[in-house]
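User: Reviewer 2 asked us to show a designed sequence for the structure in our supplementary figure. I'm pasting the structure tokens here. Could you produce the per-position amino acids so we can include them in the response letter?
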């Protein structure tokens, strides 16, 4: 590749096209890709708080809160009791479980379309690279945060 190369611009482009692919398949279910991911996490992990969900997907507090509020308004998630009254955790409602079950085949379709355009090696490498970049950036941000707190 020649010319200007920017990891940030390229990753934003990738995020947009991937989101558009998954959103186009999920549209008929009333879910968008980020909401689907949050609901899948609640299904797999059980009760989870906004901080944990944000950390898992490297989302800022505002983005997590906005998506959780939307899902809660639609009746697909609800707050669950915690031992610490200062923290909120969310769980799927029966309606949310039903919505998620209806959305999974549409998500699978997007997944299969993307996967069909790659070899098995490329598919696996993509996830390895994504994890490496995410971990590298999170480590850099942690290091910057520590330096700023010392200053």
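Assistant: Here is a per-position design you can include in the supplement:
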């Amino acid at each position: 590749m020649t010319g200007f190369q920017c990891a940030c611009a390229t990753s934003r482009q990738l995020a947009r096209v991937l989101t558009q692919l998954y959103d186009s398949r999920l549209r008929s279910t009333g879910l968008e890709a980020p909401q689907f991911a949050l609901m899948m996490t609640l299904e797999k992990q059980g009760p989870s708080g906004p901080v944990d969900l944000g950390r898992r997907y490297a989302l800022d507090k505002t983005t997590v809160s906005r998506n959780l509020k939307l899902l809660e308004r639609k009746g697909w998630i609800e707050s669950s009791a915690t031992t610490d009254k200062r923290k909120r955790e969310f769980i799927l409602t029966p309606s949310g479980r039903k919505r998620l079950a209806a959305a999974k085949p549409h998500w699978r379709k997007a997944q299969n379309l993307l996967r069909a355009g790659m070899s098995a090696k490329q598919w696996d490498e993509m996830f390895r690279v994504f994890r490496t970049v995410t971990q590298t950036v999170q480590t850099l941000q942690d290091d910057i945060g520590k330096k700023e707190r010392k200053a």
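For the response letter, you might also mention the following. The chain is about 70% helix and 5% strand. The chain has two domains: 9-96, 119-151.
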